[in-house]
Amino acid sequence: MSTPPALVIAGVGIEPFVGKHPCDADEIARRALLAALDDASVDIPEVDLWVFGSRFEHPSIGQRTLCALGATGATVLNTENACASGTVGLQIAAAYVAAGMARRAVVVGVERASGLGSSVPLPSWDRLGRAGVTHPARYALDAARYLVEHGCTAEQLAAVSVKNRRHAALNPAARFQTPVTLQEVLGAPPVADPFTRLHCCANADGAAALVVTAADDVPTGADAVPLLAIATGSGARADRWPTQTLTRRLAERAFADAGVAPSDVDVAEIYDAFTILEILSAEGLGLADSGTAGRRIAAGDFDLGTPGLVLNSGGGLLGRGHPLGATGAAQVVEIVQQLRGVAGPRQIPGAQVGLVHTLGGNVRELESNAGAVIILGRRG
After folding, report:
1. CB under 8 Å to 100, separation ≥6 — which residues?
2. CATH architecture of 7-115+204-224
3. CA torsion 178→181→184→187, rounded to 10°?
4. Which of 250, 234, 236, 224 is nearest to 376 (CA)?
5. Fewer CB within 10 Å, N side or C side of the chain?
6. pLDDT at position 123
7. What is the DSSP string of 275-324?
8. Which residues are catalytic?
């Protein structure tokens, strides 16, 4: 399903991502949603639908969060789709508003992932998990294959983290506020060849929220950004990494529905749980030719302050941190801020079209449990 262009993001809010938040998940979520409501000039009683996305915060994270605010009686949906929980939640909210089933809908992505350890474990029902394989090891295999097939170097792979940590240092909502050098990435403790620790995103605690309304019913005072398209889906059994088949399918649908081309995108927040994923995703989305993204990232083609497309201006998962259920919503927050022209020192001049790409999950027979490609824009 695609979102009609008559829908907008009227408000956004984010609770900065940190290594360990002093509050529980309910309070983290409340802070983000109240910020989004204030940004949209919407009061709690006006909200007809609340959609909460998280990976580990069930059961009833939405009801637990809202009860303390006295926000009871409206429809509350709790959804889990791994790291894509927030972006899939946005599609649910958009569908309700487009169908006339809600006038104002709020999406909240939240996670308190600090208790999960240094890496989200593969579950016992996963064949690789039962064998002791970790997430980093799984994606390191994809990285090793890409390096051999495309002549990508270890330095080019590490440049992804250098870029995103530099961008994150300009984002007050990001967990990591200090840039890293190429030497620091290459020299960090090894995790799974060719990955060091700085090739892998870190878990975080945080929340982000979005207010969705119809374009002809924007609250007075809100700076609304149009939703041009949302494409979501799951991987098929025939999909195999690192071809990014799911990402390619979703991108083709989203660009067709939005009426724009990859060359029209000014800023993209793409899934970079590991450095190789930004490279693969940029190519899968059509933002770089096959086999070229690693070289181009290392050359600075997608950096803030350079002409053309910018990748992960908010720092990506590598720089912002990764509270699983909140990540997709936070990606949308960054694009909305860029298109509004309020991103501060990381602002991309004249940005008009932005893209969000999220993946989530690891059923090994599938490329990914869930994926989403979202296009927002202010063309003309």
Report:
1. none
2. 3-Layer(aba) Sandwich (3.40)
3. 160
4. 224
5. C
6. 65
7. HHHHHHHHHHTTSS-TTTHHHHHHTTTTSTTSSS-EE-TT-HHHHH-B-H
8. 83, 322
**b/e sequence 362-374, b meaning 16+ C-beta within 10 Å:** bbeebbbbbbbbb
Which DSSP letter does residue 22 get?
Answer: S
Closest by CA to 379, choosing from 343, 345, 354, is: 354
> What average pLDDT values come out for the chain (380 residues) when binned by 10 residues?
71 97 95 98 96 88 94 91 93 96 97 76 66 79 93 97 98 98 97 96 96 96 96 74 76 96 98 96 96 97 96 98 96 98 97 96 70 86
- Give the up-direction half-sphere exposure of residue 210: CA atoms within 13 A in the CB hemisphere: 35
Predicted confidence at residue 3, as pLDDT, reads: 42
Beta bridge partners of 354: 267, 376
Which residue reads 């890496």 in tokens?
A: 119
Please state the pTM of the whole predicted model: 0.95
123-199+229-377 classified as CATH 3.90.180.10: no
- The Cα–Cα gap between 122 and 215 comes to 41
